[in-house]
Design a protein that fits this description.
The complex is a heterodimer of chains A (603) and B (367).
Chain A lengths: L4 H5 L32 E3 L9 H5 L5 E5 L12 E6 L8 H4 L6 E4 L13 E2 L12 E3 L19 H4 L12 H9 L6 H5 L6 H10 L2 H11 L3 H7 L3 H4 L12 H10 L4 H8 L10 E5 L3 H12 L3 E5 L8 H4 L8 H13 L3 E3 L10 H7 L2 E4 L5 E2 L12 E3 H9 L9 E5 L3 H12 L3 E6 L10 H9 L3 E4 L1 E8 L5 E12 L8 E13 L2 E4 L3 E2 L7 H6 L2 E2 L2 E2 L12 E3 L10 H20 L11
Parallel strand pairs in A: 7-8, 7-10, 8-9, 10-23, 12-19, 13-14, 13-19, 14-15
Antiparallel strand pairs in A: 1-4, 2-3, 3-5, 4-6, 11-20, 16-17, 17-18, 21-22
Chain B lengths: L4 E6 L11 E7 L2 E8 L7 H6 L3 H8 L8 H15 L5 H29 L4 H21 L8 E2 L2 E2 L7 H24 L2 H7 L7 H7 L3 H5 L7 H4 L20 H25 L20 E9 L2 E9 L5 E7 L2 H12 L8 H8 L3 H4 L2
Classes of the chains: A alpha/beta (603), B alpha+beta (367).
């Protein structure tokens, strides 16, 4: 056998490597710097974090749990919880970082931890390693797994809209709803901000799964006007949606709308919701006003076996959602469907029955063991300027009520609306539909307007001109006491030294006149309590136009409950529903639990 | 006179064993009469774990199925999900994936060089090759944030784009590695000791190889040209210029030379990828992972790993979680049926040599 001489000699070439610089670093004297993207220990910006817990949900090792730590309280939009990471379980996959809605969570370049104390491997990122902030490496910026863009809602074109009162929002298709629902991380931060605390993550998840009927069932669990809220809710939930921290919030309202609209009529709705109706318990409750609050009280008390009667002054139920909200936002068919459904489960509504006129309050008190007042704010505030009583100067709430009752209102072709709330926008958009050119005068800046931003955008798309920082001074009339023009002054914003919102101040001499055919004032309303007997008015407490109630909406008179605009400052449907829901609990406790102390006061 | 048979337990903790597994040997003298493999030391129930996790949560799991070369697992799961969903992958992501797969092949071969020559008693090579492999791991660290577990390839593309200046770094590392290969030749492949230990040892019968289901370098070492990258090209392999080296003989030597030649091919592929890589998107986003429903369907995908054809069978029932993920790694054949067969008649001192040459990765067997 030949000798493999090359094979014996060539390995000695390796000797050439003697004296070469080694590959390794001389740890611990030398340390290896981690790469810019290194996935090391966590760091959490505790101030940015809202404790939504998405990191804990996505963690496939269950290495993250959410705990309360000192200095962080549960507030609106913040659960008060912060993630704690078990570095003994973590696999550094960084799914938590890539799905963090706020972007507060990151990984750092730090990778070395030596300790004989196992507890030190449990880390509240950001609290236990504040120095991590200097070493951020794996961040989710621009690489988030979340979908920050909302599925756009199909709408009628602005030019099309002003031709009729057809519904502007067309609603999601099934695919659109699924895709929008899939964006939700299910954290439930929204639930806290919803006055009713609706089960938002649950019904969105049902929609994402394709179980729309389950979504409807969940919605009706604590909101009997789901479809109304799906169309016109002021959606405080979306304001604090975790996804909104870096993107557009989940379209919670539109998803509710999608699910509830699936039930085409009251029978289908009843079949889907399939509520349990308890047998009659012999107790009787009277409700004044068939607005969202009164209907809520009626619905849930009827389900619980109470005999309920709603007294409504007008010929249609719904209150402000019927007479205040224009039909292009909430069609009458939709309201009818919801009211019919309520009637079908046993809610009695007496129309054209105004308490104080058609029936006295004392009569009501004799008939029922408890009374809920939900009369709303019906009396408009006045502008308090000269010429307000002229022909062509109208109040927005009266105007909307007339239009919604299909009455004719002559407004001419040039309208000025005064105010910046949803009512002002509604009045402006309705006027556009009646063919008028519309200008809104608002005291403050556009960003200060209390109206929903989508409503403001919608108005602008329809050609409404918004003139911010304009204060009306006088309505100029002609010889027949008919509105001819409006005089207003421009204002500048003066910062509030106490840190409140800036106040408008008239710029002297900067006055202008617009020729108009009508002026519509929409600067707020108040309640009319004149139907209440003197002794009741004396026993309850009314503060700044609102009745003082406890957590069960109970007034100072144990048998009298109140809710809606007359009891809360939020003045929207969802708050009225929330009040109604609380009152249901109170009335139930009062009438079914006879051992109430303090003479029937519930707290 | 017939020698008395003795039972010998090789592993599970033995430097000659790749990973943790055990071979129960019946020996007569130092010749093996019967070999029986025992696995289970690394069983972590990956397949079952995935059935309890969402699709996105499954991606950080699969890389653990092969420590030396995790990327084919990520690639397989990603490609299977994409096939079920019909999800498009941006062109750039495909190139990046090929780059990652070839880098991981190189890293795996460096580790193999260390193991293979270590089992032959050449202890300098592991010192070198593990060091040189680290330069590739540095690249991985920079690209993916992790040195070993990259968690980088996932459905829809890759997780992050290339960092700035990364392509140049890759090319520099490739130049370095290429310059090192002749030195490895001198130290290992030309080494008379290695040749003596490798040639004619651990022979796989060419006729039986296909029957047993041998794949990868062991099959190509039998002179059979089989490579998924050529036979059923995935990603952008059909747009790249490379050859599939084969060697005759079916012994450890042939397998070693196949790998040695493939390293040159991988370097060439990486250079081509860098040159041809288009700009644009690197990730076609999947829905929010918590609500990511993969439509019902199934897919069988395969990738050419450093150890051979690596298959994944994935079934979705339309829910948030995989219904079934079946991992079919090459080690299942190489480490059990093939190993048990070709160990018979071999010398005890060759067991580690043979195991290393087959590229046995126990977690693939007991996934």
């Amino acid at each position: 056998m030949a000798i493999n001489l090359k094979g014996i000699v060539s390995p000695y070439n390796a000797l050439k490597q003697i004296g070469r610089k080694p590959h390794t670093v001389q740890y611990p004297f030398q340390k290896k710097e981690a790469a810019q993207r290194y996935r090391g220990f966590h760091y959490n910006d505790l101030e940015e974090c809202i404790g939504c817990g998405t990191c804990a949900t996505i963690c496939q090792n269950e290495a993250i749990d959410m705990i309360f730590i000192d200095g962080f309280e549960t507030t609106s939009g913040d659960s008060g919880l912060r993630p704690r990471v078990d570095n003994g379980r973590c696999c550094w996959c960084a799914l938590c970082v890539d799905s963090c809605p706020t972007g507060s969570l990151s990984l750092t370049k730090d990778y070395l931890h030596v300790s004989d104390d196992p507890d030190t491997f449990l880390l509240v990122p950001g609290l236990d390693n504040p120095e991590g902030k200097e070493n951020l490496s794996w961040i989710s910026n621009g690489n988030s797994l979340l979908d920050y863009q909302r599925i756009p809602m199909p709408e009628l074109e602005g030019k099309e809209r002003v031709k009729s009162f057809a519904e502007v929002v067309l609603g999601y298709s099934e695919d659109q709803a699924r895709a929008e629902a899939a964006r939700c991380v299910g954290c439930g931060i929204c639930t806290d901000n919803c006055p009713v605390h609706m089960h938002i993550p649950e019904y969105i998840n049902a929609i994402a799964r394709g179980d729309d009927e389950m979504a409807v069932k969940i919605i009706y669990d604590n909101n009997p006007l789901g479809e109304t809220c799906g169309k016109v809710c002021t959606r405080r939930c979306e304001e604090i949606c975790a996804v909104s921290k870096r993107g557009e919030p989940i379209a919670i309202r539109w998803l509710k709308r999608y699910a509830t609209e699936k039930a085409k009529n009251k029978d289908i709705l009843k079949e889907i919701v399939n509520p349990t109706i308890l047998p009659p318990n012999g107790h009787s409750v009277g409700i004044i006003g068939a607005g969202p609050g009164g209907l809520t009280v009626g619905y849930y008390l009827a389900l619980r076996g109470f005999d309920v009667t709603i007294y409504e002054a007008k010929d249609h139920a719904g209150g402000m959602i019927m007479y205040g909200i224009p039909k292009y936002r909430l069609p009458i068919d939709s309201i009818d469907k919801q009211i019919e459904y309520m009637k079908s489960i046993g809610v009695k509504i007496l129309f054209n029955t105004k308490v104080g006129k058609d029936i006295s309050f004392n009569e009501l008190k004799q008939k029922h063991e408890a009374i809920y007042i939900g009369i709303g704010f019906e009396v408009p505030y006045k502008l308090g300027i000269k010429g307000e009583d002229a022909e062509g100067s109208i109040q927005a709430i009266n105007f909307l009520r007339a239009i919604n009752s299909e009455k004719h209102v002559e407004i001419g072709d040039k309208v000025v609306v005064v105010g910046g709330g949803n009512v002002a926008i509604d009045a402006a958009r309705v006027s556009r539909r009646l063919g008028a050119e519309v200008t809104i005068l608002y005291r403050r800046r556009v960003e200060d307007m209390p109206a929903d931003w989508e409503e403001i955008e919608g108005a602008e798309e329809e050609g409404v001109i918004i003139h911010p920082q304009a204060i009306p001074l006088e309505i100029i009339t002609d010889e027949n006491n008919k509105v001819k023009a409006i005089k207003y002054a421009n204002a500048e914003m003066i910062p509030d030294p106490k840190g409140g919102r800036p106040r408008p101040k008239i710029i002297e001499g900067d006055e202008h006149i617009i020729e108009v055919t009508s002026v519509i004032a929409a600067i707020g309303q108040e309640a009319d309590y004149s139907f209440l007997p003197q002794e009741v008015l004396e026993s309850i407490e009314i503060k700044r136009g609102r009745i003082v109630v406890n957590e069960y909406q109970q007034t100072k008179l144990p048998w009298l409950f109140a809710g809606g605009d007359i009891a809360n400052r939020r003045a929207d449907a969802i708050s009225a529903i929330a009040d109604g829901y609380r009152a249901v609990k109170g009335i139930e406790m009062l009438l079914l639990n006879k051992e109430i102390k303090n003479g029937g006061r519930l707290n | 006179m017939r020698e008395k048979e003795t039972t010998l337990y090789f592993g599970p903790q033995h430097p000659g064993i790749t990973g943790n597994m055990m071979v129960k040997l019946k020996v007569a003298g130092d010749t093996i009469v019967k070999a029986e493999t025992h696995v289970g030391y690394l069983h972590r129930a990956f397949e079952k774990l995935m059935e309890r996790r969402t699709w996105m949560q499954s991606f950080p799991i699969v890389c653990r199925i092969c420590v030396p070369e995790p990327d084919p697992n990520e690639e397989n799961l990603a490609r299977a999900v994409e096939e079920i969903e019909g999800r498009e992958v941006p062109e750039r992501a495909k190139y990046i994936r090929v780059m990652v797969l070839e880098l991981s092949r190189l890293a795996a071969y460096f580790l193999w060089m260390g193991g293979q020559s270590g089992t032959a008693g050449l202890y300098t090579v592991p010192q070198w090759s593990v060091g040189d492999r680290d330069y590739i791991l540095d690249l991985f660290e920079e690209l993916t944030g992790g040195r070993i577990y990259h968690m980088y390839i996932w459905a829809g593309g890759v997780r992050r784009d290339l960092p700035e200046g990364f392509a140049d770094k890759v090319l520099k590392t490739m130049d370095y590695i290429e310059s090192r290969l002749p030195e490895y030749d001198k130290l290992m492949f030309d080494n008379a000791i290695f040749q003596k230990r490798a040639q004619g040892i651990g022979v796989i019968d060419k006729d039986k190889a296909l029957e047993w289901g041998v794949v990868g370098p062991p099959l190509r070492g039998c002179g059979i040209k089989h490579d998924v990258r050529k036979d059923e090209p995935y990603e952008v392999y059909d747009k790249l210029d490379f050859v599939v080296p084969t060697y005759e003989g079916g012994d450890i030597w042939a397998r070693a030379m196949v790998r040695r030649k493939e390293m040159e091919q991988s370097i060439s592929i990486i250079r081509q990828v860098i040159e041809k890589m288009p700009g644009g998107e690197y990730y076609n986003k999947v829905p929010t992972p918590l609500n990511w429903f993969v439509p019902p369907g199934e897919a069988y995908v395969k990738t050419e790993s450093a150890r051979g054809e690596f298959g994944y069978y994935v079934v979705s029932d339309g829910s948030l979680k995989p219904r079934r993920v079946h991992v079919r790694g090459p080690a299942y054949v190489h480490g059990v049926s093939l190993l048990e067969n070709i160990l018979v008649g071999a010398n005890i001192s060759d067991v580690a040599m043979i195991m290393n040459s087959l590229g046995v990765c126990p977690p693939e067997i007991e996934r």
